[in-house]
Amino acid sequence: MSECPPRSFSWTLFSLQRLRSPLRRSATRPNYSLSSWLPWILATSFVAIALWLLIPDKDDNGDSAFLGMGAFMATTVMFFLAEIGDKTQIATVVLAARYTDTFWVIMGTTVGMLLANIPVIMAGKWLMERLPLATARVGASLLFVILAVATVWTALTSV
Question: What's this model's pTM, rounded to 2 decimal places?
Answer without folding.
Answer: 0.55
